[in-house]
Amino acid sequence: VKRIGVLTSGGDAPGMNAAIRAIVLTAAHHQIDVVGFKHGFIGLLQQDYQPLMTHHVDNIIQRGGTILKSARCPGLHTVEGPRHAAATLHELNIDALIVVGGDGSFRGALAIAEHYQGQIIGVPGTIDNDVDGSDMTIGYATALDTALDAIDKIRDTADAFERIFLVELMGRHSGYLALAAGIAGGAEQIICPEFGPLDPHNLQHIITPIQHAQLLRGKASYIIVVAENSYPGGSSALAEALTNAVGVECRACILGHIQRGGSPVGADRILATKLGAFAVELVINGEHLQMAGEVSGTLQGYPLAKTGDRSKAIDPYLVRWQQQIGRN
Ligand code: ATP
After folding, report:
1. DSSP H/E element including 19
2. How many A from CA of 71 to the centre of ligand 1?
3. How far is Cα 7 from Cα 48, in angstroms, rounded to an integer?
4. What is the interface pTM, i.e. ipTM, of the complex?
5. Which of 11, 14, 111, 156 fits a 20 to 30 Å CA distance from 77?
6. DSSP codes joined into one string, 241-280
7. pLDDT given at position 224
8. φ, ψ for residue 296, nearest 5 deg
């Protein structure tokens, strides 16, 4: 292997820079050149790239975002897109491509693989932690801390104004972030897809615990953490429905893109360093269509094609406990 390409794709995640750094430093150690494609797969389609030397990755391990930029790339969904991307890789003599992103990005990588003669390796980078084959994804730990910081602050204002707050967190169709942030933030209720779909015509199981809390404890603040896509019309519509049902003002706070930003926490820097370095080792070992993952403390390759199977469950112990104490 003489030359590898790297790109960051999909939603950006804190720690993507640390992964790029590890890839470049590990490749340099093995006398392998690295080319960085800009704006995810768009860089492949538009031949927008730059050589990545070790000095390019100085002083980036602590930075959020990604120096290569990230993007969604509709062009890759066309018939011509993946063929075109593969042609760029052949033209630039890229022996292997490393894609840092979520399972959507890995589906894009698989589409390119149909036309590409080289190797393709994935590195899981998404705050959603919804990728099979690695216990944690790069960015999740930082996003959890960001969400907690916000929940703690909202608690203060909820307490002062005696309001009910719905805090909506990201996660696509996974409740990983919502469950963890809800538990660690001491939320009174947690709503996430794994607990089953919400029926707008039957919200009594949410309303009753709020009423109990008000009657029994005279509770001043009440926080419900909601995973995005949990309610038709979004969290604002749910807040309105609850306000009408309970008679206490219920506000929705949608954290949104704040969760993607910020300097990666230590755990994300370490994970990104390990998975980035391991991805290069997988390339050197001749692996193809594998994702670099860490399961139970062991680095392992995992078939890219299975990363979106959604077989990784949210922590069953926490789910059971949350249900036992009646807070979901
Ligand atoms: P995150 O979940 O953190 O946002 P992701 O990698 O899952 O990250 P997506 O938007 O699902 O994000 O995918 C990123 C890009 O991957 C898409 O914009 C598209 O270019 C490519 N892609 C996704 N699915 C496919 C597919 N089935 N065929 C070709 N390309 C795809």
Report:
1. helix 16-29
2. 9
3. 11
4. 0.98
5. 14
6. HHHHHHSS-EEEEE-GGGGG-SPPPHHHHHHHHHHHHHHH
7. 96
8. 50, 40
pLDDT of residue 323: 83
- Is residue 128 part of the annotated active site? The answer reads yes
- Amino acid found at 20: I
Q: pLDDT digit string (tens) for 291-302?
A: 999 999 999 999
- Residue 165 alpha carbon to ligand 1 centre in Å: 32
Segments of the chain with pLDDT less than 70 = 215-219, 327-328
Cα–Cα distance measured from residue 169 to residue 252, given in angstroms and rounded to the nearest whole number: 11
Tell me what pLDDT residue 328 has.
62
Supply the pLDDT for residue 141.
Answer: 98
Please tell me the residue having the least CA distance from ligand 1 atom 31. Answer: 108
Tokens of 169: 């967190």
Predicted local confidence at residue 218, as pLDDT: 62
Distant-in-sequence, close-in-space partners of 36: CB < 8 Å, separation ≥ 6: 5, 6, 7, 20, 43, 49, 50, 51, 52, 56, 67, 68
Catalytic residue among 33, 103, 128, 132: 128
* Owner of token pair 């001043």: 220
Q: How far is the CA of 72 from the centre of ligand 1 (A)?
A: 6
DSSP state of 4: E
| Among protein residues, the one whose CA lies closest to atom 27 of ligand 1 | 107
Residues 6+ apart with CB under 8 A from 323: none
Instruction: Take residue 47 and report the two structure tokens written for it.
Output: 């031949």
Q: In what helix (H) or strand (E) does residue 205 lie, and over which residues does it extend?
A: helix 204-217
Closest C-alpha residue for ligand 1 atom 18: 72
Ligand 1, CB cutoff 6 Å, lining residues: 9-11, 41, 72-73, 76-77, 101-105, 107-108, 111, 126, 128, 172
Q: What is the pLDDT of residues 209-236, one digit of tens each?
A: 888 887 656 667 899 999 999 998 899 9
